[in-house]
Amino acid sequence: MEKTGLPPGVVRLLDLATAVPERKGARRELKRDPFLARIGAGAEKAWKSNRDVFTFVGEVSVAVLRMFRGRRGSAGPTCWRSSRSAVPRPSPSSR
């Protein structure tokens, strides 16, 4: 490694780093899973992710349909009807 043109602090750090020999066993070795295991893990992750998305979309769809159908226990058209009746209207005597 060429050290010309580097600041003195960097040169000292490089000298310090190369002065001590590396201990055996200090470096961690990267162990990769076999190819098919990585493919399987990726497919499983994609399957679970897609399942969660479809579950969410399905639940939202059912909720929206129930809202428009006016099922009991939902804030559907019955709620809208009651809010329309709450709007003040002129009395027949004031016309």
Structure characteristics:
mainly alpha, 95 residues, 3 helices
Strand and helix layout:
Blueprint: H1 8-19, H2 35-69, H3 77-85
Provide a count of the helices: 3
Envelope shape: elongated
> Between the first and last Cα atoms, what is the distance in angstroms?
98 Å
Query: Overall mean pLDDT score?
Result: 81
- Uncertain segments are none
Strand content: under 5%
Radius of gyration: 35 Å
Largest sheet: none
The share of residues in helices is: 55-70%
**SSE-based structural type:** mainly alpha
Order of helices and strands: HHH
The count of DSSP E runs of length 2 or more, i.e. the number of strands, is 0
Please provide a brief summary of the model.
This protein has 95 residues and is mostly helical. The chain has helices at 8-19, 35-69, 77-85.
Explain what you see.
This protein has 95 residues and is mainly α. The protein has a domain at 31-83. Helices cover 59% and strands 0% of the residues. The chain has 3 helices and no strands. The longest helix is centred in the middle third of the chain and has 35 residues, at 35-69. The radius of gyration is 35 Å and the shape is elongated. The N and C termini lie far apart (98 Å). 0% of the residues are buried. The model has no long low-confidence stretch (mean pLDDT 81).
